[in-house]
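User: I want to check something. If I give you two sequences, will you return the structure for each one separately, not as a complex?

Assistant: Yes, each is folded on its own. Here is the first sequence with its structure:
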Amino acid sequence: MDFNHTSVLLEETVGQVFTRPDGIYVDGTLGGGGHAYRICSQLTGNGRLIGIDQDADAISAAKERLSAFADRVTIVRSNYSDMKQVLDNLGIRQVDGIVLDLGVSSFQLDTPERGFTYRNEDAPLDMRMDDRQTLTARDIVNGYEEQELFRIIRDYGEERFAKNIARQIVQKRKEKPIETAGELNALIRAAIPKKSQALGGHPSKRTFQALRIELNHELEVLKESLDTMIELLAERGRIGIITFHSLEDRIVKSNFKKNENPCTCPPDFPVCVCGKKSKGHVVTRKPILPSEEEKTHNPRSKSAKLRVFEKQQKQ
């Protein structure tokens, strides 16, 4: 199997997160193993990498790609939200670095039967990151109430015409279930004024993003996992997260800021009395962006942003 995926911000991410050649690292979104391979190639001594992914195809591809480092690598099929449990099972309390690449892989996008793409008209509406899950995007499109469809398309897709799209879906599915990307594309085009369709790329992009986020609980998982991952870092350990849309980036930026300065005391208090201590500091005051060369070579990197947080050294 050719799990084709070009790792985004590869040098920048590994350069920021890899701090000790004999350290323990976690790639929480292993994918095809691009970031993991670069980390493994620099490990020495007792250096070790734990790779986590919920996608069976990614697991298979990563095992093959990282086979040269088999004595240093442990690969687990799971969600990064279960990282603490995965590490506990391996007897690991703290790690020196964590990488998350929150983008959909090129393999997932380019494999029509996975149902992530709006560019293949015959693709089924699937979008599951983990095929052990039973609910699919088709179930959401054909089963959610109109108000719920409107909410997720508006909130997760940031789609101006969410109300029109939700209404079109509900009306059309009364005739027959909506089964394919092509059928959904036609509804979306009917719901968006032609003048607006000429702007901002493919008209289905935002709706497909919204369905994927809802189905895989992507934002909830991210929100609920960040504090735990920072706790898992050893002193001066770093976590680097690559996001691909504003909703993810906002969550990461806000969380890193809160962990750097968790104090809830009023600004005019002379001293802190809430007792909440900083967990570390934000390394990237502004996100690291792909170079123009990378964006040209890999157009899917255009919206990527890397933010990095470092665990504070104990006083």
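And separately, the second sequence with its own structure:
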Amino acid sequence: MTLSQTGPKPILGQSAELTHILRTLPMIAMSDASVMITGETGTGKELIALSLHQQSRRGTNELVTINCAALPNEDVEVDLFGRCDQEGNVTFRGRLLAAEGSTVFLDEVDALPLSVQAKVLRFLEAGECQLQGSHRLHVADVRILAASSADLAAEVKQGRFRADLFYRLQVVPVELPPLRERKEDIPLLLKHYLREFSGSNAVVRLSREAENCLVTYTWPGNVRELENFCQRLALLNAGQLLQVGDLPKEIRPEQSSAQHQFTLPANGIDLAGVELDLIEQALDMAAGNRSKAARLLGISRDTLLYRMQKYNLTP
């Protein structure tokens, strides 16, 4: 499934997890509810935010992106909300107030200073804020989307993030799976980005073995890492057919006699039966807690629910 964007980076994928997310975006976009987008770095959180904005009633206005980790060390409150003079006249409209009628995307929201989190919470709840130098409340019609690659629940427990702001942001949670959990999308992404970066040159081709190697690679930087990798290949290997030996060392499989984690019996196995058995074991060990069971299996909660439905297990 592909969701087209006006920018150069579409959201690409055919995996069940990503397809489910893309199908829910139009419904989420029609609401003004705040959305918390989580996922590892490079999974496409900003693209999801852009898609939600473009499909909303505010889509004719420009999406305002604020990287909370890049906010100035001083005057964060002024940068976000603004300032008034002694007479109460607005002398500077902060980025939140200046986004009137549009959508604000708070990227890396976990980096938002505690000193302004209460004001951001008030803005979320009522669209109100008190500008520096004024006792009068100012109101703006703005929708808030937020994203983080951190474990915000853990940040709340550590006292580094307000619990009330966390729950107010997470009215609608969207969790993006890492690329290693949607390997079936990797060939599609490779084909797209190799063609995109080829420009006027011949497109880089991959042997079946090289493509299989890239599919089994864990991609710690997710789609962003894959995109940068394809750009490098297109620049240095235009028109070539690449073999496994042509790939970077960190991506190639170990050439030593590495031991497999599981040994396939000579008479084969029932793969579906093994998967079902492991899911049932994980659910038993987690006492039915699906989030814990998903962690035991090394997959996302959405992936677990999808596979439970596949085997008609009671959710």
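Because they were folded independently, the notes below concern the second chain alone. The domain at 2-175 is CATH 3.40.50.300 (Rossmann fold). Confidence is low (pLDDT under 50) at residues 1-8.
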